[in-house]
């Protein structure tokens, strides 16, 4: 009897993690409701249209300083029909010499296909407390590379012309954590940042200015 009671409680808890989006054959997101681990609640079916399942405008956008990168995302926020599907896409354009710095997607794997120019890309995995291994390659048009979920990775353009790739993610709303912003675009005092990164105070101050962190 005790085991049955425990099992019932476990099933009840598990049921809280499932949402209507996992049960319906289509579930356009209701963005006015809270997001959950399994997606947004569904819009009423009588308000769902084909526009919820299409997106127009996967084009190059403004190039963001200091990176020289344009990243046009199509997640559930832009295409409501991605809700609960576990996928999204993006277009990545990098100016010559531009770089997508070290970053992670904690909740998604990423795959890119280069369609223009060249792009050097790689990811890093920690193999022990003191060592890590880098997997890096310069990709040309038609080349594909995957970045496993949660691993730190990067892309940059080694050439002079703009390079372009399309990316897909195993999440309808992939998170992004840029190591530069996390490390220097914060309100930690520069001496603390210097202490925890082994970077000189002068360099920390320069990077805090570059990435919008506080100097006090």
Automatic annotation (TrEMBL):
A GO CC term attached to the entry: apoplast
Family annotation (SUPFAM superfamilies): RmlC-like cupins
A Pfam family assignment: Cupin_1
Annotated residues for binding of Mn(2+): 103, 105, 110, 153
Coiled-coil region(s): none
Main location: secreted
Residues binding oxalate: 105, 110
GO molecular function, one term: manganese ion binding
Residues of the Cupin type-1 domain: 56-205
Alphabetical keyword list: Apoplast, Disulfide bond, Glycoprotein, Manganese, Metal-binding, Secreted, Signal
Intrachain disulfide bonds: 27-42
The family this protein is said to belong to: Belongs to the germin family.
Protein name (Swiss-Prot/TrEMBL): Germin-like protein
Protein's organism: Clitoria ternatea
């Amino acid at each position: 009897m005790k085991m049955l009671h425990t099992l019932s409680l476990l099933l009840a808890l598990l049921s809280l993690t499932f949402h209507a989006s996992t049960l319906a054959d289509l579930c356009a997101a209701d963005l006015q409701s809270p997001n959950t681990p399994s997606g947004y609640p569904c819009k009423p079916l009588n308000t769902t249209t084909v526009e919820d399942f299409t997106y127009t405008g996967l084009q190059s956008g403004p190039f963001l300083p200091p990176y020289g990168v344009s990243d046009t995302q199509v997640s559930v926020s832009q295409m409501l029909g991605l809700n609960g599907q576990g996928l999204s896409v993006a277009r990545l354009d990098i100016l010559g010499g531009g770089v997508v710095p070290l970053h992670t997607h904690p909740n998604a794997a990423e795959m890119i296909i280069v369609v223009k120019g060249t792009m050097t890309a790689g990811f890093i995995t920690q193999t022990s407390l003191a060592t890590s291994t880098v997997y890096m390659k310069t990709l040309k048009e038609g080349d594909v590379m995957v970045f496993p979920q949660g691993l730190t990775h990067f892309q940059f353009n080694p050439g002079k012309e703009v390079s372009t790739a399309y990316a897909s993610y195993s999440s309808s709303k992939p998170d992004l954590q840029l190591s530069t912003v996390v490390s220097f675009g914060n309100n930690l005092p520069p001496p603390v940042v210097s202490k925890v990164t082994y970077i000189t105070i002068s360099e920390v101050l320069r990077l805090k200015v570059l990435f919008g962190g506080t100097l006090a």
